[in-house]
Amino acid sequence: MIACPASESFATGMRGETLALIVCRDFVWAGLLASPHSATPREIGVATTRRAQVSRRDLQLGDQRFPMTRHALKRASRWLDRQGVRVVEVQP
Predict the structure, then answer these.
(1) Could you read off the pLDDT of 59-69 as tens digits, one per residue?
(2) DSSP string covering 60-84, please?
(3) To 10 degrees, the CA torsion angle through 64, 82, 91, 29?
(4) Which helix (H) or strand (E) element contains residue 23?
(5) Quick one: which of 70, 81, 60, 57 has its CA closest to 8?
(6) Where does residue 63 rank: exposed (0-12), middle (13-18), buried (19+ CB within 10 A)?
(7) Nearest of 7, 10, 14, 16 to residue 74 by alpha carbon
(8) How far apart are the first and last CA of the chain?
(9) Spatial CA neighbour of 8 closest among 86, 75, 90, 92
């Protein structure tokens, strides 16, 4: 069984930003930080189910899209999958 909550941060590869992800039993939370040292996120996304969508360069949780490089998106997607989040690839 996966321990909840689980959290991890990923460099987005965009302007030095970092995406913090938290996976809980009933939701997934994401906060976009201006840098790894920021205390307050600039943008927040919440999925009320354990589901995320990825496209070519974006991770989407709920209604919020987070731009990431392909490498960063792949790392974040794999981590989410290991936490039991269903990651769905969508075509733009």
Answers:
(1) 999 999 999 99
(2) EETTEEEE--HHHHHHHHHHHHHTT
(3) -10
(4) strand 18-23
(5) 81
(6) exposed
(7) 10
(8) 34
(9) 75
Q: What is the pLDDT of residue 52?
A: 95
Helix (H) or strand (E) holding 33: strand 28-33
Joined tokens for residue 88: 């769905």
pLDDT of residue 92: 67
Single-letter code of the amino acid located at 30: A
Over the stretch 16-28, which tens digit does the pLDDT of each residue have?
A: 899 999 999 889 9
pLDDT at 2: 63
Rounded mean pLDDT of 24-44? 90
pLDDT of residue 3: 65
Q: Which two tokens stand for residue 9?
A: 């941060």
